[in-house]
Amino acid sequence: MAFEGLADRLQSTLQKIRGKGKVEEADVKVMMREVRLALLEADVNFKVVKDFIKKVSERAVGQEVLKSLTPGQQVVKVVNEELTALLGGEQSKIAVSSRPPTVVMMVGLQGAGKTTTSGKLANHLRKKQNKKPLMAAADIYRPAAIKQLETLGKQLDMPVFSLGDQISPVEIAKQAVQKAKEDHNDYVFIDTAGRLHIDENLMGELKQVKEAVKPDEILLVVDSMTGQDAVNVAESFNEQLGLTGVILTKLDGDTRGGAALSIKAVTGLPIKFVGLGEKMDAIEPFHPDRMASRILGMGDVLTLIEKAQVTVDDEKAKELQKKMRDMSFTFDDFLEQMGQVKKMGPLDEILGMLPGANKMKGLKNVQIDDKQISHVEAIIQSMTKYEREQPEVINASRKKRIAKGSGRPIQEVNRLLKQFEDMKKMMKQMSGMMKGKKKGGMKF
Ligand code: GDP
Question: Which ligand 1 atom minimizes the distance to the CA of 112?
Answer without folding.
Answer: 3
